[in-house]
Amino acid sequence: MEIITSRQNPLIKTVAALTEKKKRKETGCFRLDGKKLVGEAVACGISFSAILLREDAAAAFLPLAESAVKAGLLPQSGVLTVSKSVFEKLTEEKSPEGIIGVAVMPKELHVTATPAALSTLVGGGEKILLAESLRDPGNLGTVMRSCAALGIDRLVLSDDCADLYSPKTARAAMGALFRLPTVTVASADFADAIVALQAEGRHVYATALHREARVIGEWKLLAGDCFVIGNEGHGLSPDVIGACDACAVIPMREGAESLNAAAAAAICIWETVRA
Hints:
Blueprint: E1 3-4, H1 10-17, H2 21-27, E2 29-33, H3 35-43, E3 48-54, H4 58-70, E4 79-82, H5 84-90, E5 99-104, E6 110-112, H6 118-121, E7 128-131, H7 137-150, E8 154-158, H8 167-173, E9 182-185, H9 190-199, E10 204-207, E11 214-215, E12 226-229, H10 238-243, E13 246-249, H11 261-273
Helix pairs in contact: 3-4, 7-8, 7-11
């Protein structure tokens, strides 16, 4: 197999640029670093435009690339070998394994919608979580991983959350990026999205400090009830808090700092799923 040795190769330059959201949006592709992520994507039926193998690791990872070809997820011409120096230009891993996948965004899994369209996308029996302005890609990925692991059926996001296809989000989410459906709503319309969910019979609770806030675990959630997680530093916007049925807080020891957004989300997810 021919080995790509030039860092100026057009494909190599494109793959390197996929660390930028603008380039991901332009190409409709995103990158996955490492055997675990590429393998999870193949297992979930995610399509690829290319899988790049470092020359000294090509033999070890060729079977994985060929499995994507056999499954119809990757053209045979998309299996490429690159030199060590070229791979170093591409990878962001501290200890790269030697495989990078260029995956096609599964747009049917991660959709954008208006508040009015939510009822057609979010089934009445689905367990859901909402997140407003969750900016850290590591937090977003971890929340997705918790949702997928604990039983949330769909995640509803404001469009100013971290990019789903950021390498850091993908790494933190692991396979959840390929399994957990999401709906993204414009941040200006997020309060309206909550109202739309309430019109379907759900109670929506803001995770925010308030003098009348309910303590999570001290009241019975109904099957369709859900929580909204806010920004890591500023919490939820006043409009979103105002649209919710009530505020909810997680009980903590006196003097303890607030929980990390992803940790708080995991507690809310657990309460939602067992309702």
